Amino acid sequence: MNKTTQTPRGFYKDSSDKFMRSFRAKLDQLEGQLLQLKLKRRANNAKPGGKGKIIIGPNGTRMPKKLYEGINWTCYKKATRDLCKGVFGIKMLATHTLCGRPGRGAVIHNRKTKQKLPPTQVQDIEHCVQSQFKVDQLAIRGVIRQVCADAGRTLKIAGEEPKV
C-alpha cells in the first residue's frame, strides 16, 4: 500500500509507465530540437560578416559591412565621425546627445531636451577607435558631441526640424 494515496503499489504501474516513457521520449526530442535551434542562432550571431553586418565592439554593436569598409582611417576624428554616422544615422545623431543633459540653450530658450545616445553603442565606437589609434576616451567623446551638434545644425539648415 502507498501511504499517500492508499492504493496498491502496482495498481497504476502498467498504464502510467507506458505513458511516462512516451512523454519523456517526446520531451527529450523537443529539448534536443530547442538546443539545436539555440546553437544555430549563436552561430549566426557570432559570424562577424553575417548578413552584411560587422560587429565593431565587445557589446555586439553591428554596422553595415559596406559602410565599415568606407571609413576614413587617416585620423581618429574622421574615423569617429564615420562610425557614428554608420551606427546611429544622421537623424538619430541630430535628435540625441552624448549625455542627455539639457544644455544652456535649451534652458534659456525653453527648448526640448535631447535624448541620450545608447551607452553600449558609444562604448563600442570608443573601443573600435581606440584599437586603431592611441587616443584617450575624452577626445573620442568630444568628437561624438561635435557630431551630434553638427547633425542637429545640418538638419535645421536643410529645413527638417529634428523632432525630439
Report on this structure.
InterPro entries: BEN_domain (IPR018379). Residues 58-155 form the BEN domain. With 164 residues, the protein is mainly α. The protein contains seven helices and four strands, in the order H-E-E-H-H-H-E-H-E-H-H. Strands 1-2 form a two-stranded antiparallel ribbon. Strands 3-4 form a two-stranded parallel sheet. Strand 3 (96-97), helix 5 and strand 4 (115-116) form a beta-alpha-beta unit. Helix 3 (76-87) runs antiparallel to helix 6 and helix 3 crosses helix 7. The protein starts with 12 loop residues before the first helix and ends in a 7-residue tail after the last helix. 20% of the residues are buried. The model has no long low-confidence stretch (mean pLDDT 80).
Helices, strands, pairings?
Blueprint: H1 13-46, E1 53-55, E2 62-64, H2 65-69, H3 76-87, H4 90-95, E3 96-97, H5 104-108, E4 115-116, H6 119-132, H7 137-157
Parallel strand pairs: 3-4
Antiparallel strand pairs: 1-2
Helix pairs in contact: 3-6, 3-7
Low-pLDDT runs of 5+ residues are none
Question: CATH architecture of the largest domain, please?
Answer: Orthogonal Bundle
The figure for the number of domains is: 2
What is the H-and-E element order?
HEEHHHEHEHH
Q: How would a textbook summarize the main sheet?
A: 2 strands, antiparallel
Domain BEN: 58-155
Coiled coil: 20-47
Protein name: BEN domain-containing protein
InterPro entries: BEN_domain
